[in-house]
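Quick illustration, no need to memorize.
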Amino acid sequence: MDISVVIPLLDEEESLPELFAWIERVMKEHSFSYEVIFVDDGSKDGSWNIIKSLKEKSDHVKAIRFRKNYGKSPALHCAFKVAEGDVVITMDADLQDSPDEIPELYRMVKKEGYDLVSGWKKKRYDPLLGKNLPSKLFNATARKISGIKLHDFNCGLKAYKNAVVKHIEIYNDMHRYIPYLAKNAGFEKIGEKVVQHQARKYGKSKFGISRFFNGYLDLLTLWFLSRFGRKPMHLFGLLGTLMFFIGFIAILIVGANKLIALQQGIAHPLVTNSPYFYISLTMMILGTQLFLAGFLGEIMSRNSADRNSYQIDEKL
């Protein structure tokens, strides 16, 4: 199969028939073999009924329905597990991403050998303060931390080699950082394509300001895990050892000053009266705790058996 189109959605009943018809037209024009995987992320409107009607009319449709809203990352994770196309293309369901971009994205992956091609909405039709400006600030930070020179990390329109989606794990809200996850998994040929962005035709944006702040927290988490996730002792062990060593040296100096004073017959306050004694002791305790945290983290290796356990209500 040439292409798997993955479409996560939440309450997009108006746009789904038009979007699928548009995808069908593009696929037929270029003679692609394909599948369209809809993931209904707990919609409260008639989205699932629309998807079922599309399934009845076309064997190209696959669908997953979550019992409740989990978020975009779980939706992509579940769709990636079942995607069969040589190239996997993700797009949003709100008609702001153009299916006409699919042939060129497919060509860049298949002919130019990219592992991942990310869309760049160079000209956006989002509100400046509501989404546009926060996206610019977010992308600048993501470029700096990840070292990947993309202008639009969070663009929903992306193309992947099938091997990429099978070897990365997307959880929490990490869909924003799929290029970073791919790079950490060893897929380093990451490209970018300017794509057409269209104004939302139906409904309203699901973007909230909390996603902006959560994005930064997720980026810091990913940076930490990419650096120290498999070897937490490299960070906690080092910090713990340094703190313990500094505290130990400091407490030796406090004790040495007391001994020197006693030898010279000079009146000297009790060691326990010195604030430096307690500061040194605290540093040694904190150093020990950090070292143990690193040791425990090394054992746990950040693995959780139910990290990607989601309640799927129905599959088509």
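The beta strands are 3-9, 34-40, 61-66, 87-90, 116-120, 158-161, 190-194, 312-315.
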